[in-house]
Amino acid sequence: MYFVKAPAKINLTLDTLAKRPDGYHEVEMIMTTVDLSDRIGLEAREDGIIEIVSVDRFIPNDAKNLAFQAAALLKKRYDVSQGVSITIEKNIPVAAGLAGGSSDAAATLRGLNHVWNLGLSLDELAVLGAEIGSDVPFCVYGGTALATGRGEKIKHLPGPPPCWIILAKPVIGVSTAEIYGQLDLSTAFHPDTQAMIRAIEEKDFEAMIHGLGNTLEGVTLHLYPEVKELKEQMKRFGAEGVLMSGSGPTVFGIVQQESRAQRVVNALRGFCDEVYCVRLLGDREELPKGV
Ligand code: ATP
């Protein structure tokens, strides 16, 4: 069995610029990888069948699974005769704004490139990934990047200043389509993407905290007051910067010191079942092998 790590992402910024004629939104997002990962196991099969083996009851185990779609796309496009059994060990909360499904698909593309011996570059895998979902290309590369278009156009950025991330997910799941459906672009908050890029390039922690922003946050906070409450708690307990990731409902906090991160996590435990303290994997040069 060949194992690949599928790490989650958070959005340091998420700006929605316009609704496109094709139904997608034009976005500008700065995404960075965090050290909370699903584990994908890949076992080639000679019968040509693609199979999902997952014990997680919250994700589909058929063609609706994004990892299945990744395998099916590669198999068809490159006329692969072999099949694969894909084992998904799920650690990333589902429907949380952390791109868990997209990252599983991206890891499946990277892993099958090896298992099926296809010899494709990451750039080629990212182009394929865009056919599966807008966040898949970023997840193919990992690290830190500016994503534009519908999210599939990737410009790599250096790693953000060193910090610790606290992730807290309320029990609710949020549908990205529902949040975009309720977004009013004329009144929404728009983060300053260029300022965040400068903060990252200059490794300026204060400027990074100051620049955190997400156009979708207002919609989700209005629909789900528990997310707003969680944000306020995280701030009160000592997080230096706090933002909702993606369309939510996961809220993340940023702190510089590990001891401070642990204090925030401990304080949150009584209020929120799913709390994680993770490091950033924001620098592509430093990604561990297998990610
Ligand atoms: P994003 O941040 O990209 O919007 P998300 O974190 O909000 O994603 P996911 O965890 O990717 O959401 O799940 C969204 C939906 O995708 C779920 O309802 C789930 O049924 C479906 N899905 C398909 N394949 C997977 C997978 N491998 N892991 C998780 N969800 C999957």
From TrEMBL:
Binding site for ATP: P93, V94, A95, A96, G97, L98, A99, G100, G101, S102, S103
Domain GHMP kinase N-terminal: 65-143
Gene Ontology BP term (one): terpenoid biosynthetic process
Domain GHMP kinase C-terminal: 196-272
PANTHER family: 4-DIPHOSPHOCYTIDYL-2-C-METHYL-D-ERYTHRITOL KINASE, CHLOROPLASTIC (PTHR43527:SF2)
Gene Ontology molecular function: 4-(cytidine 5'-diphospho)-2-C-methyl-D-erythritol kinase activity; ATP binding
Reaction catalysis annotation: 4-CDP-2-C-methyl-D-erythritol + ATP = 4-CDP-2-C-methyl-D-erythritol 2-phosphate + ADP + H(+)
Gene name as annotated: ispE
Highest taxon in the source lineage: Bacteria
Record-linked InterPro entries: GHMP_kinase_C_dom (IPR013750), GHMP_kinase_C_sf (IPR036554), GHMP_kinase_N_dom (IPR006204), IspE (IPR004424), Ribosomal_Su5_D2-typ_SF (IPR020568), Ribsml_uS5_D2-typ_fold_subgr (IPR014721)
Reported function: Catalyzes the phosphorylation of the position 2 hydroxy group of 4-diphosphocytidyl-2C-methyl-D-erythritol.
Active site location: K9, D135
Protein name: 4-diphosphocytidyl-2-C-methyl-D-erythritol kinase
EC number, as in UniProt: 2.7.1.148
